């Protein structure tokens, strides 16, 4: 009976995920606010049934009562964050909030299936990050001096990265964390704020040089620390913001050329880089060593097929570091390739929403922040999924909101809170423009009224 429930559950979860994904894109084209609200409520219902079905299967397979307790705690958290956002920020983007809850749900399902203690720890970190994030939007609205802290952002980033390089111990071939915290995740935010603050006013060659110097220092320290994934994310974000601020394609091409040269130099200087490239080129040739991880990932993806093995039916634990770098492979194995494609589309919807918000914001400082944070999010998703599927060499970054990792999930939630603040700012700008338009019409109407009276009185 349990096997029947497990087999049916994967089709129920898959169907709900497909419909949820369709709603993410369908709402972009709809203008009817009442219909949007109804679709948002339907999305919450689908998240609830996906979680209920998945955790029911995990409990039936494990018969561990702690799974039920975790499920209750998780649902309380989701209910709290949905209610609080609706009370505190009535102009917030509920689709952005729903997508965050969906990605967190997928992560909690897989973490609970792989390691319940890790899932419990992740939930505590997510709850703490969400509590902090509730004050971020109002800070974005009220703290107008943020654009004036240009060199404070640069200094914080460089000092923290240098501390990691000097003091951190090596883990999986790279220096990543201090006292259990990965500063590069926080510096993703400060780096975007630095670039936006420097480039939000008139951009000349001097500012481009200053931005390049600071970016080279950030990326250089990360390369020396062998945190290659973060180094690539910082570099791509730098290129995007320079191009958007200057509209000069020559800077983009020069940057890409410099990045290619830097990659070749890193390949020859660092054995760590050569190992990852070797595992990417032919993982079966080095299966017993550096290729083992990617081979197991490909086996898991292939085993899952289109519809997956079903929760608790696969063997994702055979993939090293599956909770962090290769959780996408575990999702493919147990929930299926179609579910994984829907997950990618939800992440794509996330990115497109951020870009849409950025394009509608008139303040150049906030516009660059939105584009920078959106670029970091999208490229991190690309690096994680690309590495797990052997599309690119593995870079060792996590899938935002889904993978296990306290610093990563905390900072991603804070990034999304900043985006919510920018979305609310955009709504405020629209309301202000509409108010000014109505006042202008009223003033014109008042001036026109005496003129019409005089015209009637003239014989």
UniProtKB/TrEMBL annotation:
Region (Disordered): 432-459
TM stretches of this protein: 12-29, 41-60, 67-88, 94-116, 123-140, 152-174, 186-205, 211-244, 251-270, 338-361, 368-389, 401-425
Domain of life: Bacteria
Entries under Pfam families matching the protein: FTSW_RODA_SPOVE
Keyword terms, alphabetized: Cell shape, Membrane, Transmembrane, Transmembrane helix
Basic and acidic residues: compositionally biased ranges: 434-452
GO molecular function, one term: lipid-linked peptidoglycan transporter activity
Protein name as it appears in the record: FtsW/RodA/SpoVE family cell cycle protein
Source species of the chain: Blautia massiliensis (ex Durand et al. 2017)
